[in-house]
Task: structure prediction
Amino acid sequence: MIPNNPRILLSNDDGFDAPGLKVLARIARTLSDDVWICAPAQEQSAASRALSIREPLRVSKRGPKSFAIGGTPTDSVMMGILNLIEGKRPDLVLSGVNKGQNLAEHITLSGTIAAAIQGMELGVPSVALSQTYPFTENSIIHWETAEQFAPQILQSLFAAKWPADVLMNINFPDCPPDEVRGVEATRMGRRDQDQLEVHERTDPGGRSYYWLGFNGRLSSPPEGTDLQAIYAKRISVTPLHLDLTQHDVVRDLAGRLGALQYQGKAADDQG
Result:
């Protein structure tokens, strides 16, 4: 699935100058000498799959194979694959290393995940990588944990030959490498309490404004989930895909809606 010395495209949502992108570049260069970077010029955290369709995209060349894109993570990957990378398409998209976790339901907000989704949608195997940290001022971020373990995990994933409609989401726990307790294949979890908070504040002119943030409270997730793995200081590897359908509900609705459609057709026939 992934050839030796693959052509790798790097992107992220923390911005071109983010420390995590530098970590990712070092990880990528343990796997290949053909590494390209197309990342947002500015931070785009929580941009999800936003696509710039009403504004022009400005591109700044930062090196022989490096470009800063004045847009979103999705814009950046699209520009790289469809326009900026010369010759053949990349063999692999790596997105990250994100400053902070991308777990459970919050993956739908993530620009890091979105960049990997866009690579997958364009037919390129894609992996998102995130380094957990406490989200507090002056916290220690253990970038060395992602840097030490990512190459071996990626090599193992390359041998797994995962399906074309799947992307891999890797989260590294908030601890130094010697405290990591293993690697676990996980499913997407769900937090059991609302983490988002709205803080109302007042500017110097006396006008109210609002600041959104996360309270950082831990949930009580079951074993086998990405959340539980991270809480237990294990590296979480979750295969993701874009089918958000709840299939049990589809089966329940099929009969109900089918009957409505039949009645409507009969009424038309009688009229």
In short: The longest helix spans residues 247-270.
